[in-house]
Amino acid sequence: MKQEFIDLAKYRLDKSRNTLSDAKKFVDEATLESVVNRIYYAIFYAVNALLITKQLSSSKHSGVRAFFNREFVNKGLVEKNFGEFYSDMFDRRQKGDYKDFVEFEKEDVELWLNRADDFINKIEKLTMEIIDAE
């Protein structure tokens, strides 16, 4: 794998971590819709880092999800529940950003923050294993 791809994957992993850190800070100070947005994007950036290891990318969120499911979830490299969580957070982010009268419960958002942490840990570990195997 070219060094530029390795650097980009690592950059996106850092961006994922920073975005999740922001979400954790915002949970008591911002709207829960904003926190859900940050949770989703933290996951999205991590998945993009993983896709780089296969030289895959998409300009659409649906394309990123499709590549992730096809190349990693369906092949058993990532547990199915992580794929479901990613899709679920995409749907929740869409509702929070674009629908009216959407409200999230703080307990749910805190649960999603913890799940996102687990998700990112898994994706980061797999990404680095693929990079180190090259």
Entry summary:
It is built from 5 helices and no strands. By secondary structure, the chain is an all-alpha fold.
Describe the model.
- By secondary structure, the protein is mainly α.
- The chain has a single domain, classed as Nucleotidyltransferases  domain 2 (Four Helix Bundle (Hemerythrin (Met), subunit A)).
- The protein is built from five helices and no strands.
- It is globular and about 45 Å long.
- The termini are close together.
Key features of this structure:
single chain, 134 residues, mainly alpha, Four Helix Bundle (Hemerythrin (Met), subunit A), 5 helices, globular
Give a topology summary.
Blueprint: H1 3-26, H2 32-52, H3 61-73, H4 80-98, H5 106-133
Helix pairs in contact: 1-2, 1-5, 2-3, 2-4, 2-5, 3-4
What's the end-to-end separation, in Å? 6 Å
Shape: globular
- Beta-sheet strand percentage? under 5%
Rg measurement, Å? 15 Å
Number of domains: 1
